[in-house]
Design goal:
This protein is an alpha/beta fold and about 300 residues long. The chain has 2 domains: about 150 residues, no CATH class; about 130 residues, no CATH class. Helix content is about 55%, strand content about 10%. Strands 1, 2, 3, 4, 5 and 6 form a 6-stranded mixed β-sheet that branches. The longest helix is centred in the middle third of the chain and has 24 residues. It is found in: Cytoplasm; Nucleus.
Length: about 300
């Protein structure tokens, strides 16, 4: 995706309040862009917005405001309290539910289902999964509704992201098996004691468009500059230092300009390689002089787009 198109989407997408509205508006305006790509960009921008504004919503004054407002509305028997409040204050429903439960636990005894020594954070995590354990029935029902309604935070979105990520990792492993490419999976590497574990580490390197590949990382998301820079620092750069050059796949697309670090050992793609050059395993074992183009050691202080 061209950077100019991505910047256009960044201006339009945050104005949508839900994925349904996203499909109706942005999906119609840009029919050539897969809706999965638009949805991934929307989710990334929404989560960043919540992180940037979290301190404002989590201040003591705001927490008290939200808590008092909730119970005032509960006393008036209003419906959809957390969802309506979240929409009014431009806040994630699950984030608001977490604040309300946190305040409730501060002002009331811990629910009888939990030991007194159980950390509050652990209690809140359990209450998200089982809101019925909250003694306050109205708050419990409102939290349950918030969990169901929230498209970006909470148990449901987390489970969906894990499932989508696992699905694409399995797709990558199946591609390796179908193409008779020998590899170690992430689980295999953990068992062997590796400290850094790409989704696939090739036992014998392959060449894609003349570029050496020793590992492949699967990302079920859109690759923008901020997320890619973080991945390079925390994952992709260390992979290159340990295993040599490799490939990261952003299944929902990426900004074209990000594929600019091949000389540092990081290639970027939006799908599985279409053509692969493989090495004869016997030749690989015997010919110690065989060399792929080597990438220089990756330096986190020398990475620019």
């Amino acid at each position: 995706m061209k950077l100019s198109l991505y910047l256009e989407l960044k201006e339009i997408i945050p104005k949508c309040r839900s994925r349904r509205q996203l499909k109706r508006s942005v999906g119609i305006m840009y029919p050539e862009i897969p809706i999965e790509t638009i949805g991934s960009i929307y989710s990334q921008e929404y989560q960043r917005k919540m992180k940037k504004t979290h301190h404002k919503h989590n201040s003591p004054e705001r927490r008290k405001l939200y808590y008092d407002m909730f119970f005032e509305k509960a006393a008036n028997k209003e419906k959809h309290i957390i969802i309506n409040m979240a929409r009014k204050f431009d806040l994630s429903p699950c984030m608001l539910a977490r604040i309300l439960m946190d305040e409730y636990l501060e002002q009331n005894p811990k629910p009888r289902h939990f030991e007194q020594t159980t950390p509050k954070r652990m209690i809140i995590s359990q209450l998200f999964k089982n809101p019925q354990k909250l003694p306050h029935v109205v708050l419990a029902m409102a939290v349950h509704e918030a969990v169901i309604a929230d498209e970006h935070y909470g148990p449901f979105p987390d489970n969906i992201k894990r499932a989508v990520g696992f699905e694409h990792e399995q797709k990558l492993c199946k591609w390796c098996q179908d193409n008779d490419i020998h590899f170690m999976s992430e689980d295999d590497m953990r068992k062997e004691g590796y400290d850094k574990t790409p989704d696939v580490k090739l036992l014998i390197p392959i060449a894609v468009d003349g570029y050496a590949i020793n590992w492949i990382e699967s990302k079920a998301s859109f690759g923008d500059e901020e997320s890619h820079t973080t991945y390079v620092r925390d994952q992709l750069g260390p992979y290159t230092n340990r295993f040599g050059p490799g490939l990261v796949i952003y299944w929902f697309g990426f900004i074209d300009a990000l594929d600019c670090q091949r000389e540092h050992g990081i290639a970027v793609s939006d799908g599985l390689p279409k053509t692969v050059e493989k090495i004869n395993p016997e030749l690989w074992a015997k010919n110690l002089d065989w060399e792929f183009p080597k990438a220089p050691r990756w330096d986190p202080f020398d990475f620019e787009f």
